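quick q for whoever's on today - can somebody do inverse folding on this one?? i tried earlier but teh output was garbage lol. tokens:
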């Protein structure tokens, strides 16, 4: 089977995909750490979503992979949309998970500008824990919150501000209809970051896109309902396992 490239979201890292290891039973998993985040927290963050997309493409090439399946979460979902735009022939199947095509994030739990100011006022660590709590239906009482927050806390203030600015200034709306690969749009119905309008826009505009709405979870579906998440992703990718 083709390799699956996993692109984490804002203040995320490759360690947040630990519960997705079963997806690697029959395929190679490549979980990147974006510059400024996770295990690459010491690297300088990049200025915009296209730059992150180009970086991931270069990283995948460096690992000797030409054609692959692609999954992006949250900000990572914006990045993978831009990867398809930059290199459409390299992506076989696409999963857009808890993400959208509009970087201003209308309906988010708070405006991006508010998050940026609060990050300056409160500092990186407090911001990481506060925002990470919004990703779970049970907030900081969720079982996976401590591990998730620990990864988020690696992000510097510069990386937090750069990531928020990159999302704010990006839009992929004009490119949705040109996405020509089989696409699964996956979302938790309690998501406080990307409301239904963003998800519906992806689903209705990307040609032939499939939709999976998972009940009783929020922005971190892959941690809250990992078994169901993994089955949905595996079934979707397996549908195209016999093609190039």
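ok took a stab at it. sequence:
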């Amino acid at each position: 089977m083709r390799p699956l490239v996993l692109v984490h979201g804002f203040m995320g890292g490759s360690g947040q995909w630990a519960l997705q290891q079963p997806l690697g039973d029959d395929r190679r998993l490549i979980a990147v750490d974006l510059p400024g985040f996770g295990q690459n927290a010491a690297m300088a963050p990049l200025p915009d979503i296209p730059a992150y997309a180009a970086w991931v493409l270069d990283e995948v090439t460096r690992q000797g992979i030409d054609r692959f399946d692609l999954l992006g979460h949250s900000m990572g979902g914006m990045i993978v949309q831009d990867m398809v735009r930059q290199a459409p022939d390299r992506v076989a199947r696409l999963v857009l998970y808890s993400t959208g095509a509009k970087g201003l994030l209308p309906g988010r739990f708070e405006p991006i500008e508010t998050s940026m100011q609060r990050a300056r006022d409160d500092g990186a660590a407090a911001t990481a824990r506060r925002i990470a709590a919004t990703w779970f239906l049970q907030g900081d009482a969720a079982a996976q919150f401590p591990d998730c927050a620990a990864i988020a806390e690696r992000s510097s203030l510069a990386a937090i501000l750069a990531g928020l600015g990159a999302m704010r200034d990006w839009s992929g709306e004009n490119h949705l209809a040109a996405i020509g690969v089989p696409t699964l749009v996956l979302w938790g119905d309690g998501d406080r970051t990307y409301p239904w309008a963003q998800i519906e826009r992806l689903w209705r505009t990307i040609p032939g896109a499939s939709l999976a709405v998972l009940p009783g979870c929020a922005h971190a579906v892959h941690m809250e309902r990992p078994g169901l998440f993994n089955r949905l992703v595996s079934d979707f990718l397996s549908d195209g396992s016999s093609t190039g």
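fwiw The first strand starts at residue 4 and ends at 7. also Residues 4-238 form a domain with the Rossmann fold fold (CATH 3.40.50.1820). so keep that in mind when u check it
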